[in-house]
Amino acid sequence: MDDTIVALSTPYGESGIGVIRLSGPASIEIAQKVFKSKKNLRDVPSHKAIFGYIVNPKTEELLDECLLLVMRGPHSYTGEDTVEFYVHGSPVLEELIIKLLMELGARLALPGEFTKRAFLNGKLDLSRAEAIIDIIQAKSEAGLKSAFTQLQGRLSSEIKPLMENLKDLIAELEAGIDFPEEVELSYESIGERISSIIERLNNLLGGAYFTRLYRKGIYCPIVGRPNVGKSSLLNILLGEERAIVTPIPGTTRDTITESISIDGIPLILIDTAGIRETQDLVESIGVNRTISSIENADIVIWVVDVSEPLREEDLEIEKITRDKKRIIALNKIDLANRLLYVKDLEMYGPVVEVSCVTGEGIDRLRLKLKELLVGIPSPELVVPINVRHEALIKRCINRLLTALEGINAKLPIDIIAGEVWESYNILGEITGETTSIDIVEEIFSRFCVGK
Amino acid sequence: MKTFDVIVVGAGHAGIEAALSANRLGCSVLLLTGNLDTIGWMPCNPAVGGPGKGHLVREIDALGGEIGRATDATYIHIRVLNSGKGIAVRAYRAQVEKKFYHIYMKEKLENTSNLTLRQAQVTEVLVEGNRVIGVKTKTNQEFYGKAVVITTGTFLGGRIFIGTEVSYPAGRAGEPPSEELTQSLRNLGFRIGRFKTGTPPRVDGRTVDFSKMTEQPPSEVPLRFSYRTELAEVVGRKQLSCWLTFTTEKTREIVLKNLHRAPMYAGQITGTGTRYCPSFETKVVHFPHRERHQVFIEPEGIHTNEMYVQGMYTSLPEEVQIELLRSVPGLEEVEIMRPGYAIEYDMVYPDQLKETLETKKVAGLFLAGQINGTSGYEEAAAQGLIAGINAAFYVQNRPPFYLQRNEAYIGVLIDDLVTKGIVEPYRILTSRAEYRLVLMQDNADERLMEKGYKIGLIDEKTYKEMLERKEIIEEEIERLKRTNIPDLKVSAYNYLKRPEVSYLDLVQKLGIETTLSSELISRLEAKVKYEGYIKREEERIKRFSQLDDKVLPEDIDYSSIKGLSLEARDRLNQVRPRTLGQASRLQGVSPADIDVLLVYLELYKREISKT
Ligand SMILES: Cc1cc2nc3c(=O)[nH]c(=O)nc-3n(C[C@H](O)[C@H](O)[C@H](O)COP(=O)(O)OP(=O)(O)OC[C@H]3O[C@@H](n4cnc5c(N)ncnc54)[C@H](O)[C@@H]3O)c2cc1C
Ligand SMILES: Nc1nc2c(ncn2[C@@H]2O[C@H](COP(=O)(O)OP(=O)(O)OP(=O)(O)O)[C@@H](O)[C@H]2O)c(=O)[nH]1
Ligand SMILES: [Mg+2]
After folding, report:
1. A424-438 pLDDT, tens digit each
2. Which of A4, A249, A297, B170 has the fewest CB atoms nearer than 10 Å to its CB?
3. Is the distance from the beta carbon of residue A361 to the nearest atom of ligand 2 less than 6 Å?
4. Strand pairing report for B47-49 and B75-81
């Protein structure tokens, strides 16, 4: 019980406030790393709410403002040092914060673990003991079940061969150590094997990114100068009159979000306020939102009006969307007074000519969108990974990287073997298998050793 | 009739250590053995040490045992294994002069006062209630003792096999088995298993052509296992080489042609064999793609031409054995002096023992050595030592003595025996030790000598010498921390941490004097280079050893604890572990079961404090 655990202690889902609880010897130290306020948490009084901000110490990114409560052991629910964060109740945000706390050394609590600690630290009376045993039992059953479903699951089937590889490697290292006269080891081949395992783990981490994309959808704002036809494009892609369309520039003041599906991939379309310098306060807020929606974008549709020349503002938009995957919709091709052509814009990316009035080119636009999404693997190919798995895989990669550095520095095998064992055990936590290897079994089934 | 404090049955490697340690702790000891001429006999390779095993020897020595001293006194070849693979797994391996080793041990036992040595075949353990009171021999003699340690090796129900046609009862080649004792143990309620092992043929060194083999020279640096061996005793020791050759395609063919004549393949031997001691026929069958196998030719003594053929243990008929050997380069003209053989024997499943090696069923009865399912001299000696100490403490009403997994390979060995179900002969390996980096062969004295001194097995002088060595190293480390490397802006201490830098390089670079012996230099290097890793290992130990400190109440009834899985309940009731740590290592006990036990322990504690 000398590790520090973390979990959301309010029900998961959208709610007013979420409480994230840290318990264990390092909880204050970990909280201090993410919590920005005038006070140092080591000195604040117990059980007093403090206002501050949660900031990712590595990226300096502000995650949320929050209230925080330090409760020093033994005067806390668990009897250990405990910190509670009261944050805005959004699942995405809560997940982010918990992930951050895990990166800083906390471990995700098992169901009932706070209560178990409370009991073991003498905080609960005897009448609760039975209830706790029930929780533990339920937990082990649930654990078995989830271990079972996971076993069937894709992540496990990806992890298992990696564990097999690690097991082979450990057996080889150990055979080389315990039977030095019979088994020879080569640093080079060990290094190569470790590198290839790291590479595969990194691929799995990529899966974590795609998992998130699928869960929240692909974020695709439609941007452009006022009056180029962004709202019209949203409506036609949606197949319904969702956004207001007028000939007056600056019609759309706030963002409108709607999702469509392109071949099973959820695409979230956002109609935005046209970007221009404006004195109008409401409009300028809208413009700011547009800019921030571009920052969060996975793909951008940039709409340009063929009947007008490229203006300063167009080029501005070009600049802020340059780092994004983008499609240029050259709109209003039904008009007679055409000034712009594909060749004028193709240097900025793929261009599709469309008309939101006649519907011409819309199918081609859909096709182009799909092509851009092709880089994103289809859902069957994505291995789903949750926060816990991601943290474990990262830890595993770190241990293997240390081993690899050791190989390069020609550190002795006994030290390198230790790192490889650790990385194996970490992966075992994902599949939920018993983590100990019958190493004797491995050595003797793979190597011909002994008198 | 006189009642001894401790009776030890069997003067093999376990029995010797048991008798000597109990005696050194002040007990009157009777040592009964089947044959006084084979005390401390090495029926297999007369080799001591190697990874894991060398660690054990050092640990036994640090607790006052004899195996290290005897090896130093009689070795005819010694070298360092794993020198490039890391300080934690580096180990010595020696070949001893087989006869001299026996003579050394016999002389030692004979000249120890308050120790009575007698040739006798024990047939029965005498018990009153659930307490041992003595033993009975084949010649109807009864001997009484307050504690009894049984160390009968491969002798219980032993049966030798050479090919499918030849098989006869024997404790090992040339000695009768112990036929009755197994039944006596069965009658006491012990579960008995049957294991097997074997040994290769011995050949006449004059018929070996060494020019076709690679020489394996001994170490030129004088080495010693024991902290109590004077350097002068090993300096200039006359040593012999070992020799390496390889089997050929022809060897394989001979095996495959004769497979039906191997009792293991013909189904005659049913006992469980060791995987790390595979017969040559097993190697050929299991590793069909391996073109050749290593064969080491090793000396058995100075006054003999007999040589051991490591790598070619076989139970094939004698006439096939010679054919096999002659297919190996250098052995074309070889003559066998003794054939190889396989042996099957009874063993007692060691989960019936406490970690003191006392049986759970019969108070005062201890088992040690191969009878517990292990294989190897060092493994036997380690258990003998622990059983001897605890037999003495049992008699003297002193608290039991045991070692944790993070303190010693001895702790790993015994914990494995009493918690993991042993299903095949057990041999120590460094990979069995989860805290390997802190358990070096080199630092066994620092780990254990203080304990040995406190319980009375290490004398003042030896203990003081250990403290001195420690101090010298620490002083030198301090000096290195204070000294800077001129052109590099690092301390000499940090410079030495670099993998490619040795202490001698450093001394040369700095142009300073050193008086450290080569042994102390390697200790110093270990301390400096492994400092960070050892720290991390110690943190792990702290994290994981908490469960080992939680003692389970002796009267605990696992069937009445709600929430335990059925499997855990059965296994816990059967093994009755002493600590929660042991419980967690039992097969079938899950982390959830351990949680339940934690809660139970807390309940129990509160109930006790209420009354
Ligand atoms: C054929 C063979 C092959 C082996 N191969 C290997 C190997 O490859 N690797 C390895 O590490 N080890 C090997 N060993 C094992 C090694 O020899 C033993 O593990 C070790 O000697 C066991 O020590 P011990 O003290 O338990 O028993 P032992 O050394 O066998 O000593 C037993 C002693 O008990 C005495 N005794 C037996 N019964 C009685 C009785 N009823 N009354 C009185 N005295 C009795 C005997 O006379 C003997 O002195 C082998 C042994 C044999 C026989
Ligand atoms: N001829 C023609 N007119 C179009 C087309 N697309 C949009 N329009 C017209 O252009 C005007 C502006 O359209 P909106 O869709 O409101 O443009 P917007 O980009 O959303 O404008 P803001 O919200 O003001 O930034 C409307 O009068 C539309 O009818 C098109 O393809 N062809
Ligand atoms: Mg609009």
Report:
1. 988 887 776 554 556
2. A249
3. no
4. unpaired
Longest dimension (CA), chain A: 93
Name residues whose C-beta falls within 8 Å of residue A11's C-beta, 6 or more positions apart in sequence.
none
Phi, psi of B195 (to 5 degrees): -115, 170
Residue with the two structure tokens 């709109």: A331
Distance CA A208, CA A201 (A): 11
Q: How far is the CA of B93 from the centre of ligand 1 (A)?
A: 20
Q: Which helix (H) or strand (E) holds B517?
A: none
Give me the domains of chain A, ranges plus CATH numbers: 5-109 (3.30.1360.120), 133-212+386-444 (1.20.120.430), 217-372 (3.40.50.300)
Question: Within 10 A of A116 (CB to CB), how many other CB atoms are there?
Answer: 23
Q: Which fold has domain B460-544?
A: Arc Repressor Mutant, subunit A (1.10.10)
Which pair of structure tokens corresponds to residue B605? 């504690």
CB B173 within 8 A of CB B180: no
Rounded distance, CA B578 to CA B586, Å? Answer: 12
Q: pLDDT tens digits, residue range A110-153?
A: 767 787 788 777 776 655 666 666 655 554 444 444 433 443 46
| Residues with Cβ–ion distance below 5 A, ligand 3 | A 231, 251-252
A254, amino acid identity: D
Closest CA to A24 of A134, A116, A95: A116
Query: Residue B30 phi/psi, 5° resolution?
Result: -110, 125
- A129 CB near a chain B CB, below 8 Å? yes
C-alpha dihedral over B240, B241, B242, B244, to 10 degrees?
A: -160
Beta-bridge partner residues of B135: B125, B143
SS (H, E, C) B338-405: ECCEEEEEEEECHHHECCCCEECCCECEEECCHHHCECCHHHHHHHHHHHHHHHHHHHHCCCCCCCCC
Nearest C-alpha of chain B: how many angstroms from A393?
A: 20
Q: Which ligand is located closest to the Cα atom of residue B371?
A: 1
| Inter-chain touch A137–B89, beta carbons under 8 Å | no
Residues with Cβ < 8 Å from B200, sequence gap 6 or more? A451, B280, B308, B309, B310, B311, B312, B313, B314, B340
- Segment A385-409 shows an average pLDDT of 86
A235 CB near ligand 2 (under 6 Å): no
Burial class (CB in 10 A: 0-12, 13-18, 19+), A283: buried
Asked if A412's CB is within 8 angstroms of B599's CB, the reply is: no
What's the predicted TM-score (pTM) here? 0.79
Chain B hits for A177, Cβ within 8 Å: 51, 82, 85-86, 89, 430-431
Sequence-separated (6 or more) residues with CB below 8 Å from residue A131: none
Edge-first strand listing for the sheet containing B294-299: B214-216, B242-246, B294-299, B306-310, B202-204, B336-338
B344-376 pLDDT, tens digit each: 999 999 999 999 999 999 999 999 999 999 999
Q: Which residues of A touch B278 (CB under 8 A)?
A: 444, 448, 450
| Tokens of residue B520, six digits | 């102390």
Q: Is A23 in the pocket of ligand 2 (CB under 6 A)?
A: no
Inform me whether the C-beta atom of residue A184 falls under 8 Å from chain B C-beta atoms: no
Q: B288 to chain A: nearest residue by CA? A: A448
Going by CA atoms, what residue is nearest to atom 11 of ligand 1? B376
